[in-house]
Amino acid sequence: MKLAVLMSDYRSGIDMIDRLSADSLGIIFVGNGVYHAAVKDGGKTSSLLGKKANFYALVEDFETRGITAANLDSRVKAVNYGDVVDMIFNDYEKVIWI
Amino acid sequence: MATKKLSFVVRSLPYKTEASRLALTHAIASQTVEIYLNDGDLVEASISYVGDGVLNCLKGQQGMKHYGITTIEGHAKNTLLLDMRVLICKEDLEKFGLSEGNIVMDAEDIGGETSAKIVAYSEIQKEMETADHILVC
Amino acid sequence: MGKLTIGTFSSLVGSLSLDFAVKLAEAAVKKGHKVDFWMSGNATMLAKKGQKAFKDYSFLAKPIQELIATGNFQICACEACAEARGYHKEDCPDGFIRKSMDWYLASTFDADRVLHIGGD
User: In this model, does residue C119 exceed pLDDT 90?
Assistant: First the structure.
């Protein structure tokens, strides 16, 4: 399946995503999930970024939190709400919120 | 005539928030959806408990006694009474040191004939793959 | 164009997840899609007239009315969840529907995509 995951949390839900498998997996960091895209904890990037997936972070949510596109991990692409709609309808068959 | 399949995946702990309660009540609502649809069209919901969500299935919940609210246990039994497909993640139960004896497996005491199934996570993954939509709660 | 059904359970003001759901709905309608917006649990707070706009707090009443006016957006509150919170039919803003949970399940039947935001 082609699955989009809207990851809205920073401290929980990682175990759920770790177990997911999909032919095409898109992890879109929204809400507090954007910290996965930019923050290093103890010098380390988020373990989620090591998963085989396409990574995106919502501009409106990371800029709200004082993060800029320049701060994003190189594996993460900045997207806006319109892009998220297009991805949900065109690139992925199912979408879940964590 | 078509049937759409919804996979409710319950990962939230019960009671502090109503997420898992609402997952079960919404899934149960699939039983009366025909009033909105064309004849023969159906929405079929299944429920999978994963991660911390398996703790929703513990027997002996006393929400009514202490807070005056129906228990998640009661709703879980209703899903089985209504013959819904209920899957409980084996690996997560084992992680909490739980087994069949600790959790709601059937609704025989209220006339139900369907049992929950303790399955490997891989079965829950398949359930998600075959559903039309996945609703994580 | 397609149909997106969003089920949201997050609190008004107390959680920006509800704002996310509304902004996603706006983006989808702007692109020509239809959106069904189901509110259950704490999200039924949105189905209450008389919300005031303060800079410190989300104000979703206006964008919701603008969405309703497009004709491509339906918004429905869970009747039981609303009543449990003291929100009655007469408290509902114009254009809102109130139904039982099977409305949401029925909406998913012909939705191309379903997004369930199941908690605060």
Answer: no
B131 touches chain C (CB under 8 A): no
The string of DSSP letters for B56-119 reads GGBS---HHHHHS---HHHHHHHHHHTT-EEEEEHHHHHHTT--GGGB--B-GGGT---B-EEE
Q: C118 pLDDT exceeds 90?
A: no
Q: Does the pLDDT at position C14 exceed 90?
A: no
CATH of the domain at A71: 3.40.1260.10
Q: Does the ipTM exceed 0.85?
A: yes
Which residues in chain B touch residue A13, judged by CB atoms under 8 angstroms apart?
11
CATH of domain B3-136: 3.40.1260.10
Total of domains in chain A: 1
Distance from CA of A74 to the nearest CA of B (A): 29
Tokens representing C107? Answer: 């909406």
Q: Note the pLDDT tens digit of each residue in B40-79.
A: 999 999 999 999 999 999 999 999 999 999 999 999 999 9
Comparing CB atoms, the residue among A8, A82, A88 nearest residue C113 is: A88
Residue C85 clears pLDDT 90, i.e. is over it: yes
Chosen for mutation from B3, B24, B26 (greatest number of chain C CBs closer than 10 Å) is B26
Parent domain of A10: 2-97
Question: Residue B18: its chain C contacts at CB < 8 A?
Answer: 9, 41-42, 119
Judge whether C85 is closer than 8 Å to chain B, CB to CB: no
Q: What is the mean pLDDT of chain C?
A: 96
Low-confidence ranges of chain A (pLDDT < 70): none
Instruction: Please name the member of A31, A85, A95 whose beta carbon is closest to the beta carbon of C27.
Output: A85
DSSP one-letter string for A12-76 = SSHHHHHH---SEEEEEE-GGGGHHHH--BTTB--GGGGSSSEEEEEHHHHHHTT--GGGS-TTE
